Amino acid sequence: MAVTHNNPTRSLIADLVSAELNGGTLEYQTGGSVLVAAGALSADAAPVAVAGVATFNPIGDATNGTGVTRVVAQFVMKSSLSAEILYGSVTTSGLGGDIEITDTSIADGVPITTSSLTYAAAP
Hints:
Largest sheet: 5 strands, mixed
Number of domains: 1
Helix content: 10-25%
Radius of gyration: 15 Å
Strand content: 25-35%
Structural class: mainly beta
Distance between the termini: 13 Å
């Protein structure tokens, strides 16, 4: 049997992670870690986690200001001090990325709207 956490412990972990992200950013990047766009996280990134899941407060739109169209392949969530806290994949809807967006090819000046985001602590 695998070692697991109970829900109160998972919620504590999720709360610690979301607290690290208070006032931080959600960065969309290319596969080569080139910044495409960044959205601001609120000062209170997420309310108290429930059953190990933190649901983030609204995230500011991230706009591509690179001057060229870029393909987004990954994301990094950083603290207000720019420490990397979470990272993962970005794909188009239905392809199983950690974050799914409508189109990963982002033209210059086009915003990426993150309508909802959750973090689930490992069981």
